[in-house]
Amino acid sequence: MIVAENLHRAFGAIEAVREVSFRAEDGRITGLLGPNGAGKTTTLRMLYALLQPDRGRVTIDGIDTQRDIQGARRRLGVLPDSRGLYKRLTARENIEYFGRLQGLRGTELVSRTDAVIAALGLGDIEHRRTEGFSQGQRVKTAIARALVHAPQNLLLDEPTNGLDVMATRSLRAFLREQRSAGRCIVFSSHIMQEVAALCDYIVVVAQGRVVASGSAEALREQTGEANLEDAFVKIIGSGEGLMA
Q1: Which of 5, 65, 176, 179 is the most buried (most CB within 10 A)?
Q2: Residue-wise pLDDT tens digits, 96-118
């Protein structure tokens, strides 16, 4: 479980995130939904401790990221906004490298790498250098890298950005499998269809603040709209907070 409490982060005079609070439960997909520039990526970076909040705190399975950053990170698998693959390494080498960073060695490293390669269908490209990979191949490799140490919690920044229809469908199915396995999944998006199709709980962020939260159905009911897109536009347009 991931808990964000009153997160605030400024860059000079710009307040990117202002008092953001929410709880992401195990066995549930939580979506951060908001327009570009709303503060979603900054919030995610604070969740995985790449950025420290000016105020507030984050706990990962009860571990405070500011008190035990390495302990918290061991509980996390992260797909950042910059996929960051090493182009000279093969897909397998990228995955194994991150496994070693998480303390995996020997047969455990091999078996975990084999497992994520099989789960994400990377067998036909595992020995190819990642330079020249398609967007879908890069994203799958980056997700496999994030999963190799079997973390309880997944943080994904715009995971379907640039993917084609088939790759997007495959990724959706994979995330549902992870949810069924009891993992806590948080992902950011500005794509309404993605959030509606996947998320059990939605946190709407605008201008660095949480302006609404709840299931897609709850947000539609509270705004009186028939679909999530219209509900989102009304929430952002009114600036009124809606919590469920």
Answers
A1: 65
A2: 999 999 999 999 999 999 999 99
